[in-house]
């Protein structure tokens, strides 16, 4: 769908309108400069995960978001893409440890959290650690996980069929403020160069 667009404002406007009507699209937004755009689609599927430096693989059903950023240039359309996945364990910990209403639908919260992670990813607001990385959540806390490359799946085709592999932030768990390491907490709330001697 994106590759059908032409590098002019009218074509991009038509593309965004079409994207909003697609099943599973949770977000269509523009950057502050108005020249870069983000499309986010949601899927639920069983995926095979493998943590960095570990041989063990495991399958888990996850809510998966595919984010595609694109920008119209004179020479054509430039595309960047990432994914974010939330497994059952991460969702359970989010409900348990956050201030989300237990009786309210959780999906709108996860849609918003995925968008937050995509924005933080673009702005390089990652909090690295030796065994993974964190992104600050919209609720008080952080999402902890790792980045894994996945082959492109056929059901993701409307977004990323032209790309060979997809980097995905695999959310392992949700950490409330009380459960973060001190250095993670300080970096999540503004002390980006914090280190313990």
What this model shows, in words?
The protein has 197 residues and is an alpha+beta fold. The protein has one domain. The chain is built from 5 helices and 8 strands, in the order H-E-E-E-E-H-H-E-E-E-H-E-H. It has an 8-stranded mixed β-sheet, with helices on both faces. A hairpin with a 6-residue loop joins strand 2 and strand 3 (57-73). The radius of gyration is 17 Å and the shape is globular. The model has no long low-confidence stretch (mean pLDDT 81).
Mean of pLDDT = 81
- Summing up helix and strand content along with how strands pair, one would put the structural category as alpha+beta
Helical fraction: 10-25%
- Reading the helices and strands in chain order gives HEEEEHHEEEHEH
Extract low-pLDDT stretches.
Answer: none
The count of strands amounts to 8
Rg calc = 17 Å
Write down the domain tally.
Answer: 1
- The helix count comes to 5
State the separation between the terminal residues, measured CA to CA: 51 Å
User: Could you give a short account of the major beta sheet?
Assistant: 8 strands, mixed
Strand order of the largest sheet: 1-2-3-4-8-7-6-5
Shape, principal axes of CA atoms: globular
Strand content: 35-45%
